[in-house]
Each structure stands twice: as structure tokens, then as C-alpha cells.
Amino acid sequence: MLVLASVALPIQAQEEVLEKINCRLKEGNCESAQKLYNAYKDAYNQTDKDIERRIAACKDPKDFTAQGFVDLGLPSGTLWMEESEHDNYFYSEAMTQFGSNIPSNKQWAELMEECTWEWNESVPGECFYKVIGKNGKYIRIKANGYVDVVENLCVGCGGDGGVHGYYFSSKPINNENLEVFSFVKVGKGLLLWKLENLSNCKLGVIQAVMPPQERKLVNGFFRCTSKPVSR
Fold this sequence. Notes:
The chain is an alpha+beta fold. The protein folds into 2 domains: 2-59, no CATH class; 69-209. Helices cover 25% and strands 32% of the residues. Strands 3-4-14 form a 3-stranded antiparallel sheet, with no helix packed on it. Helix 2 runs antiparallel to helix 3. It is globular. The termini are far apart.
């Protein structure tokens, strides 16, 4: 039995330990989750980036850097997660888990227009766009395809890394149609906007947040220092 930070952790199934950490986080018990996670790392010699982000968010919801968000120097001030999520989701699942962190169509448009998109196949079995801001910082958006649960197949994934990406926007069109940001790697790379009937499909998610705007007192009135994106 391992003892660390006053937490006794038996050597048991990793999934069970991670579930306990998740329960602590759902309860808002940040310190208990941190202690269990520390013990988990020592017991299994493994880390979990998603758990680390969630613990950081639990401790300080305003510490976006610790949660893995990157400032790309965008005009709107939007911060994007350093990489897209590993799994694909139904829209309802994505909204439950990520909520307001699902980017809007305007945020996607800004990311397209303000950043440089470089296709990358350097990771075996995984293709992605390296999206670089004007300040030199970057995020990774995987060519994840989408999962058709009716046909039980992954569309656009490919055996050695896909060439298509399908990602949620925060705006549903109706019960069956979703507004989707998508891309397909053609030549140097082509970015597309599509509206598709994907109600039976699981799509990718990358998170984006808009931190509280700084305000300055100007002539007796507070003014926001950043401005919204227009299109």
C-alpha cells in the first residue's frame, strides 16, 4: 500500500483510481483530487493531462494557462486549448462536458483568418494542423474525421492518420443539422465551412474561452480594451 500526502492508495485498477479522482472533482474537492492524483502518478508512473487541467480549473477557474489554454494573440482575446480533445462526441455530450467552451462560428472564422495553418504528419498515425498565431504561439487540431454510429465507421480518418477534421461550433441549426467547422487536407491544405446532417455522428471538440476583458477608466467611464470579432 502506497502512502503519499496523507492518502493511502492501494495498487488497484487504474480506471478505478481515475474514477475516484473524477468524483472528487465533481464534488469540488480540489485538494483531495490533487492528493489522489499525486499518489496515482507515483503508483503507476503515469500522468493524465486532462486530469491535470481539470484539477487546475477546480483550484482556480481563472488560471487559463494552467488549464492548457494558449494565447494566440487574437484580436478578440479568445484563448484556445493547446490541442483538440482525443475523443469524438455527440452534440449533446459535447455541450454537457464542455458547454460554453465550444467555440462559436465567429471564433472559428477568426482562427482561420488570423493564424497560419501548417499541415503536419510528424506523429506516426496522427495528422494535424499546427495553427500558429501572429505571436508565434500555436495549438494542434487533429484530422479526427467523424464517427458514424449508424454505419459503425470513422469517416475521413484513414488508416495512417486522417486528412479530414470535423469540429463542433456552438450553434445548432435545428435538431438534425449542426453548424460544423471542417477541413480537408488538399495539396497545401484547404479550409471549408460546411452545414451537414450529422445528428447520428460523433465529431471532434477543441475548447476556446473568452477571459474577462480588462477595463480601463476613460473620462469617467470603463472601456474594454479588446473588441469583438466582426465578419
